[in-house]
Queue: 2 jobs
Job 1
Amino acid sequence: MKRILIIEDDPYIAELQKDYFGLHNMETEIVHDGAEGLELALGGGFDLLILDLQLPGVNGFDICRQVRERLDIPVLIVSARNEEVDKIKGFGLGADDFVTKPFSPSELVARAKAHLARYERYTQGWAADRKAEPEVLRIRELDIHKAAYRVFVHGKEASLTTKEFEVLLFLAEHPNRVFSKEELFERIWGLESSGEIATVTVHISRIREKIEEDPSHPQFIETVWGAGYRLTV
């Protein structure tokens, strides 16, 4: 059974989330204080984190940053703060998704299940890599180990999150083809964009920082102004 940690200071919202996850056979634990939630999250044992931003003790941004430095579990921000700058900051700190309040509990569960499935494929890929030679997609100095979710540039490993890896892999599997931000969101996140295209922009920027020699002049992922992005070979 998957274990989910909910860090949410509103008891009603937290219980609503717990009820819906329970209907899908997921075990949840609720914490209303940011400091307590951070300590519990860093202690491990959870498969996914649902995180509010406005919390007593430690705010959600700080929790996201510290969790991402130590753990690679999916982090879903659920917040009433809906400004684009908040979403960009959240994704920049390593969040996997950003859901704006008020939200559909069913959609939240669907998003969580999608992230859990991707994370499970990621961990299984690591195990498979230890037993067999992984399938590698090579593009110039870039090696993408598809099963193991690992990326190497000039032989040095670049540490990508699962979502960053999936964006890069998708573009690499469709070389020289331009995809709009909306298309990338729908293909990678599996849901209609609903105005969340800032997610794609942030992830592309973070990928470039990790694989490009000069992110301001990218050699792998190019921006086609007014159209989208493409990976050139």
Job 2
Amino acid sequence: IQGDGDYEFAIDNGPWSSLAEGEVSIIFSNLEAGVRQVRGRDIGGCGEVIVEVSLIDYPQFFTPNEDGYNDRWNIIGIANQNNAKIYIFDRYGKLLKQLSPSSPGWDGTYNGKVMPANDYWFSVEYEEPSTGKRQEFKANFTLKR
């Protein structure tokens, strides 16, 4: 939202929150991953704007020991994007796995061999719903044994 006015914002159908005096942005926390509607409106009643955004989340670690907890690693929040791609790399940049967010996820192996406990990096390519543009997000996670 641009221009002069007093604005308030909400996520999905949540409560409205106003900007504090002199602030130009607002932070919402503890949101679940997935497609969210960010709503903004002028308090004076001059209209409302709704923009859909993708909130992506991922486990900071996983433990592929077949105990039923954290056995696979995957991106959270874009399983409905069939054209999204996730790439997992070792610390040297070697591609270990390509997967889809709708797949069961990575089991911690490469060519059938168990990978060691270590940090691994990933990139995810997805489509931002509000613009339709292809986006990329990169970060890392830990495989614990």
